[in-house]
């Protein structure tokens, strides 16, 4: 009986492996994560993946990597390690292998998988053009391989990958360093900018994209003989899904999506159905299009740039009006129609609803009019060249949100959002290149003991303010107190922004005010986050530039919460070794770190009393479930706290910001 069971187990195991081997390499990489990725079969395939990877970091395409290799094949692959021929992002190459390695690493912490993944990431970053696009092959580029390639969703797939990595989601098991994440963010923003710039204008109206665009002119370009410059019903779909996945989209992204959806609606075909004739082996031996009333919508893969008329080509490059007019080799061996835009049209209504402002618009109100939408461009192409001029032109206490879109550039000015300038949004073109900077500091102001509060680069006094995708900087250097952003208003949301400075970079004030910072980078030296407001910081990076203190809260005595940091990362310059999490500017200070990662610069004692013994009894400093070398709960000062699981449950966005304000933060754009 035991022998029979053993044989049965072997057979079942072999059958399982055979079922996997019979899948395509693409299908294997897309398998659901789970125990199989720790099996001997998966480990054997992973060895092949490592062998096929070239020293530069990328992989060739169209290889069934799961197939067993003999010794001769392995030696050949080792001899080709330094070759840069045929390394590509086409047909899923490189991205698929990286996804497989990530799934392997989650089940088996083999550092070779992580090293190979990061090497692949380095390859992708190096392969990107300065304009944000990617060539089909890198570094050996020739002919149409030099074009920016959207073909087969190559570039869109890379940017989806970069989005997961920059957002620090759990999709990939391998986590790049913070420095590398910053590079990925820059690459992602450049890629999106390239997509926006390559969207084709037809009679001055935005439409869709070609499968490839010239890397210099950005215009639609030719690839193979039968892949002529055209608008693509297939590749454009994945591009739009990518744009729709971006949180808090810029006005340009919103316009791009709306225009593409209009184009999809105008070009869908509902009176044709594709029929495929298969042989006994299941291979397509003929395709034909039949007239069918109320057929499921489809789109042509190639459409004329100026008329949207579908066309088809054989290898002679001569355009035909129907697939029946081209030879069987190309007719049957190529996807001439697609239904992929259906997914865009399915998701579009919810996306459109999501991007609406938080308040219902009156029937007679139109969004983005000349009264509630201004463009600021230092180069003169917008409504204003100065940000303050746009603020001053805005209506006081408006009924609907006022968008101030700020183009890339360095704006050297001191900016104030007055108390009557409510519902203002600053939307930057890009976080790295839209920079508001000024250089006031305590000694320069020289107006007495309260000079600090006058040193701001940006002062927010108007409620319901939003800032996204930009940098606010105090450039005065290490000269003492110098505020970059001073927030003295309620319901302020700062997202995907850089706040740069030294001492006192961010001041959040206003007793009873509640504010929200998400996905921000905040740097400084001493007390670079200080004030009395209740503030939730999520997924932010707090970077110390000097041995000193991160926070200096002055929380009012009757406030339930003060500063709450959730899922944040605490980093420092290489020379920085001794940093406190916080000290009490006023004795009822409240500061809590939850699920944060703390590097080695955080001192074991964690907190300082600022020579105020009474603050040890009145302040509340706490941590929960943090990680990293700097998280040493057993060595913290005795008057700080490590929250229990039940205590930590009270630190939700609902409780910290309360339901009404929380809903504003989550839905406002």
Structural shape: globular
Helical element count? Answer: 18
Percentage of residues in strands: 15-25%
Architecture of the domain at 199-355 in CATH?
Alpha/alpha barrel
Number of strands: 36
Show unreliable segments: 1-16, 357-369
Helix content: 25-40%
- Describe the largest sheet: 11 strands, parallel
Can you tell me the CATH topology of the domain at 199-355? Glycosyltransferase
Q: What's the pLDDT, averaged over the residues?
A: 90
As laid out across the biggest beta sheet, the strand order is 11-12-15-18-21-24-27-30-33-35-36
Task: Indicate the structural class.
Answer: alpha/beta
CATH classification, class level of the domain at 199-355: Mainly Alpha
Radius of gyration: 28 Å
Q: What is the rounded distance between the termini?
A: 68 Å
Explain this structure.
The chain is of the alpha/beta class and 669 residues long. Among the domains are: 199-355, Alpha/alpha barrel (Glycosyltransferase), CATH 1.50.10; 525-662, Single-stranded right-handed beta-helix, Pectin lyase-like (Pectate Lyase C-like). The protein is 29% helix and 20% strand. It is built from 18 helices and 36 strands. The strands form eight sheets. It has an eleven-stranded parallel beta sheet with strand order 11-12-15-18-21-24-27-30-33-35-36. An eight-stranded parallel beta sheet has the order 13-16-19-22-25-28-31-34, with no helix packed on it. The longest helix has 21 residues, at 178-198. The radius of gyration is 28 Å and the shape is globular. Keywords: Aspartyl esterase, Hydrolase, Lyase, Signal.
